[in-house]
Amino acid sequence: MLVLGIETTCDETAAAVVERQSDGSGKILSNVVRSQIAEHARFGGVVPEIAARAHVDLLDGIVDSAMKEAGVGYAQLSAVAAAAGPGLIGGVIVGLTTAKAIAMVHDTPLIAVNHLEAHALTPRLTCALAFPYCLFLASGGHTQIVAVVGVGQYVRLGTTVDDAMGEAFDKVAKMLSLPYPGGPQVERAAEGGDAKRFTFPRPMLGRPDANFSLSGLKTAVRNEASRLTPLEPQDISDLCASFQAAVLDSTADRLSVGLKLFQEQFGTPRALVAAGGVAANHAIRSALQDVAAKAQTTLIIPPPALCTDNGAMIAWAGAERMALGLTDTMEAPPRARWLLDANAKAPAGHANSRAGH
Ligand code: KG4
Ligand code: ZN
Question: Rounded to the nearest whole angstrom, what is the distance from the C-alpha of residue 7 to the centroid of ligand 2?
Fold first, then answer.
């Protein structure tokens, strides 16, 4: 089974061709990603209108490259999959409409993939992981703990009630005048910093649910930064280190609760899987390692190129759905918000600028 996957929900324009063998294993034939970071950097964040226009400009060429690199003709495709949400609606429309056009012209089935489902299923592509497992997804738009029970069977165990984790890193970087995207900058600055100089709040610590909250912590960093202004380089390092230490403590606490909830409902997970840009953070990785060990499970982090947004994960989710006969019609809507767990309710007071969590 050969599936073309298209990803345009945020600031990566991506397309890939993935093959799914009859034994259920997967192989990436091409995976072309064009990041728009340069287009957005001077605004200190992703500008939806600029992202949508860039997707329009780039997508045709990227799909073409993905098909050529894979050495596959359109007639050979078993399906074309696009991320139909959640995400920035302009970009989602560009990707989904392109997929519909390809599906229509080549008389190929269409699969409208939930972007979060694609992150959730990635370890089945990279290491044929069996169900059930626990996913921790932390990116610029999402912060979730999800029980991945089967294809289409997801139970959200926890989510952020305000900012996404990557968003908090980006906002802290911005208030300290570090460049965008802020996560790697904050991590680097934290290396030379004193994590004990400031005692920032550990939001939600000890709560019985597995939700996250990051905006209070971000505000505490802002207050401290304005109190210290003008900031010396050492102040910036100490603020970053103290902020990151608070994120680590709260992540470890929230995930251990998430894994406990998982255990109660589904037994021991086959693995704890981390995905999203924040999973690139070394301090967070080692905190996750400890949490997984305590829960007597293994930590799996897909390679960076498959942890962050890409077309291969969309193609793979499409292939997994296609194998179960789950295709979509031309009426499939683009969705700014799209809960992975259809039965889940968004936590009260939850609003995020980027996507439907
Ligand atoms: O998954 P991703 O590449 O894109 C989406 O958000 O969809 O995640 C990007 C996010 C940004 O907020 C970025 O600051 C954060 O991941 N990030 C990090 C690190 N690298 C990227 N956050 C903390 N530490 C890092 N090393
Ligand atoms: Zn993503």
Answer: 9
